[in-house]
Design brief:
alpha/beta; Metallo-beta-lactamase, Chain A; 20% strand; 311 residues; seven-stranded mixed sheet; globular; five-stranded mixed sheet
């Protein structure tokens, strides 16, 4: 009888240990090596929820001879830790830079997972001001979306190295060209071009399938299309949606959406239509082409109306 009790006890202990280890283990982050030493993870085309843990943006990293640069850290510290674990599975070289492409939480709420000695956070010259203005609001509003457990880990970490125009980061036989752009998706958009492989991390200046979001300037966003198209990229990691193979043709869908939105808004303003009507009707001819259209197009129309009515 004592032996039976012992066996049952042992089985229960093993079961509890397995359950505990399963709970603690983070699911593996799926990576694509899109060029030698360049890795990216495709986020879900969804709104942020507790279920997806904010993992809705594309994130990645680049490995040089001496060090690693992380390009965006994801929508939660948990996703950031998964990215850090993925990097450790690829290389033992130190992470030297964390580049945030802009201010939105789905791209930088994972920063705390990388906040350690020797790591420099990098962003657009406007990013510190944008984080100071929005950080507290983001933490408050995303508490409902992500839940207490995930949001309590998040810390707003401003860049200590900022980019006014262009800056080159050297990872050891690997130069990254960081470019700061005028207001478009936001007023703090930054792109990263790996010169060695021609890989462009565009941040949210490029959207694929996910409807573009205007949080800076709709006209600026539209104007940037030509400048982006001129970048001689061989591989492109957009801020959201599938990785790009046909560059710069992939920009045409985004350009068409923004052009229709601007045209509709100008026509409505000229006709004396109000903001409410514009939010409902502008850009609707593009609806079938984009995911999350109903979630973001009214916001884009509202922002665009405010900008265009003073032309």
């Amino acid at each position: 009888m004592n032996r039976l009790v012992y066996l049952v006890h042992a089985v229960l202990l093993a079961a509890f240990a397995f359950a505990a280890s399963a709970k603690e283990a983070e699911p593996r982050l799926l990576l694509k090596e899109i060029a030698p030493g360049v890795f990216a993870h495709e986020g879900l085309i969804e709104l942020t929820t507790q279920a997806n843990e904010g993992a809705i943006a594309n994130i990645g990293f680049i490995v040089g001879d001496d060090a690693v640069a992380v390009i965006d850290t994801g929508g939660s510290v948990r996703e950031g830790r998964r990215l850090a674990a993925a990097i450790a599975g690829v290389t033992n070289k130190p992470i030297r830079y964390v580049v945030n492409t802009h201010v939105h939480p789905d791209h930088l709420f994972g920063n705390a997972a990388f906040d350690s000695p020797g790591v420099t956070f990098v962003g657009h010259a406007n990013l510190p001001r944008a984080l100071a203005a929005r950080g507290a609001f983001y933490l408050s509003s995303f508490r409902r979306l992500l839940g207490e457990e995930l949001i309590d880990e998040v810390r707003i970490i401003p860049p200590t190295l900022t980019v006014d125009d262009e800056t080159v980061l050297d990872l050891g036989n690997r130069e990254l060209v960081l470019k700061a752009w005028p207001p478009a998706h936001t007023d703090c958009d930054l792109t990263v071009l790996d010169k060695k492989t021609g890989t462009l991390f565009s941040g949210d200046l490029v959207f694929m399938r996910h409807v573009p979001i205007v949080d800076g300037s709709v006209l600026g966003f539209l104007r940037l299309a030509d400048a982006l198209a001129a970048i001689p990229a061989k591989h492109v990691v957009p801020g959201h949606g599938p990785l790009v193979a046909n560059w710069p043709q992939a920009l045409e869908a985004e350009r068409t959406y923004l052009s229709h939105l601007v045209k509709d808004l100008r026509g409505m303003i000229k006709a004396g239509e109000g903001l409410g009507t514009a939010a409902q009707k502008a850009g609707q001819s593009e609806r079938a082409k984009w995911q999350l259209f109903d979630d973001y197009n009214p916001r884009n129309a509202t922002a665009g109306f405010a900008e265009l009515e003073w032309e």
